[in-house]
Design brief:
Pfam families: P-mevalo_kinase. The protein is α/β, with parallel strands linked by helices. It has a domain at 3-39 and 94-187: Rossmann fold (3-Layer(aba) Sandwich), CATH 3.40.50. The chain is built from nine helices and five strands, in the order E-H-E-H-H-H-H-E-H-E-H-H-E-H. The chain has helices at 19-30, 40-51, 55-59, 63-82, 86-93, 108-117, 131-136, 149-152, 174-187; strands spanning 7-13, 34-37, 99-102, 122-128, 162-165. Helix 1 (19-30) crosses helix 9 (174-187). The model has no long low-confidence stretch (mean pLDDT 92). The structure holds adenosine-5'-triphosphate.
Length: 188
């Protein structure tokens, strides 16, 4: 598939704001024509290979992932200093479906990449949840992670196509999900 023929929905939000949850709900709207891709996946794949770690365990929500999170962030920064778009480029090479849901944009350079590559077929989404909600979902403020660039770099961005307030449950965000899915299908 020609890279330019994708419609791309980019999700961003703080830890435990519900990025994966929203990505899954969106995917249900698109079924076979959609797929979820994560910028952090090639990062984890290459990091695991270079550090002799278990790639699968870095992907799930395990203690193992949390243990390596800080070092992985630092390593990712070093790679991005050489090429800020390296992980976005890798993830797009893996895309095979018409509608791509990128569930973890974290930096302005990620947005730059998608704006440049998909100027007409792009939806930028911010997921917001209050700290109290995130804590109920298991979030604990961690110095070096929650105050790092990977969590804060997009805080100042205001021109999202949609902001989803995800403090309640799936019924509460269903209307937002429908609008986003509808807009994406218009762009196909
Ligand atoms: N609207 C919702 N209704 C019910 N549960 C939700 C909702 N949003 C998120 N959750 C739950 O909260 C938890 C955290 O959500 P999720 O994993 O999607 O967050 P995330 O932003 O992807 O987190 P991280 O950045 O840490 O990977 C999950 O258990 C998820 O099922």
């Amino acid at each position: 598939m020609n890279a330019k023929s994708h419609v791309v929905i980019v999700l961003s939000g703080k830890r435990k704001s519900g990025k994966d949850f929203v990505a899954d709900m969106l995917l249900q709207c698109f079924k076979e024509s959609g797929e979820i891709l994560r910028i952090s996946e090639p990062l984890k794949e290459i990091y695991a290979r270079e550090h002799d770690l278990n790639f699968e365990r870095l992907l799930d929500a395990s203690e193992y992932k949390e243990k390596h999170r800080a070092n992985m962030i630092k390593w990712g920064e070093e790679q991005r200093e050489k090429n800020p778009y390296i992980f976005c480029e890798t993830v797009i090479r893996k895309a095979s479906k018409r509608i791509l849901i990128i569930s973890d944009a974290r930096r302005k350079t990620d947005l730059e990449f998608f704006r440049r590559e998909f100027p007409k077929n792009l939806l930028l989404i911010r997921i917001e949840a209050q700290e109290e909600t995130r804590q109920k979902r298991g979030w604990v403020f961690t110095k070096g992670i929650d105050d790092a660039d990977s969590e804060c770099n997009l805080d100042s961005i205001k021109d999202w196509d949609y902001v989803v307030k995800n403090d309640k449950d799936n019924l509460d965000i269903q209307e937002d999900i429908k609008s986003i899915a509808h807009k994406a299908l218009e762009l196909v």
